[in-house]
Design a protein that fits this description.
The chain is an alpha+beta fold. It has helices at residues 55-67, 102-105, 130-147, 161-172, 178-187, 213-218; strands at residues 11-21, 26-32, 42-43, 45-48, 73-80, 91-101, 116-119, 159-160, 191-198, 206-211. The strands form 2 sheets. Strands 1, 2, 3, 4, 5, 6 and 7 form a 7-stranded mixed beta sheet that branches. A 3-stranded antiparallel beta sheet has the order 8-10-9.
Length: 233
């Protein structure tokens, strides 16, 4: 088949905004760029889309190479297409954001790319338009988390209410009243209390909980009003 005539051919890439939670802070995974321009500077993990794959397949491949992760939460964010976004060649990049439990995958992250977790409040300067990607991903995460119990993707299978509250506070950048938060969360009936406690943070300890997957599927909107004024986000 003939190619389209008189058309400019562009490069297509993906970039992955990988969010993780360490039990107290929301973090982002960054790497040192391995080629010019901006060699050695901090960057999102990305790569070019190969001729035999979709953008989502490319994003899954990129995540696998860096973290060894399969089956993590991955969602397409936006296609960044400013003509001058890459100084070398016209490149369109489709950004995806991923949500991972840091403790589950920390040992699998490849040393080859010098990857490092940064608290979002301490993120260094990034190359090209990657900071715009992160900003957009954070806003999308806040919006979706206000409507859907999406943030459980960042937690271990067993977690405490203080951990859950710390996660919500990190995402929404606001301090939440402990009693009010616990009451609202438990009223959703989406959590199952476990018999054991986490005693690493206090003498009294905090009970572990797990997500009730059955109730979650039937009534995931139960978390809609966990965050005050979530409709304004």
């Amino acid at each position: 088949m003939n190619k389209y005539q008189n058309q400019t051919h562009l490069l297509a890439a993906v970039d992955c905004i990988i969010f993780g939670f360490d039990g107290s802070q929301l973090k982002i995974l960054l790497i040192h760029r391995a080629l010019e321009p901006e060699l050695g500077k901090w960057s999102l993990m990305g790569g070019f889309i190969q001729s035999n794959e979709s953008s989502e397949q490319a994003a899954v491949r990129v995540l696998k190479v860096l973290t060894g992760m399969d089956g993590v939460y991955l969602e397409q964010l936006y296609t960044f297409s400013q003509p001058n976004r890459d100084p070398i060649e016209r490149t369109l990049s489709t950004a995806y954001f991923a949500l991972v439990d840091i403790a589950l995958y920390e040992k699998q992250i490849s040393d080859e790319y010098h990857a490092e977790w940064f608290p979002l409040t301490e993120m260094p300067s990034l190359i090209f338009d990657h900071e715009s990607m992160v900003t957009m991903a954070r806003e999308k995460l806040k919006y979706k988390a206000a409507l859907h119990p999406l943030l459980f993707e960042l937690l271990p299978k067993k977690f405490t209410l203080p951990q859950l509250q710390s996660l919500y506070q990190s995402v929404f950048n606001k301090v939440l009243d402990k009693r009010n938060f616990s009451r609202k969360v438990l009223s959703t009936n989406l959590l199952i209390k476990q018999p054991d406690k986490d005693k690493g943070t206090s003498k009294k300890g905090a009970f572990y909980y797990t997500l009730n997957t059955k109730n979650y599927k039937e009534d995931f909107q139960a978390f809609l009003n966990i965050i005050p004024n979530s409709h304004l986000l």
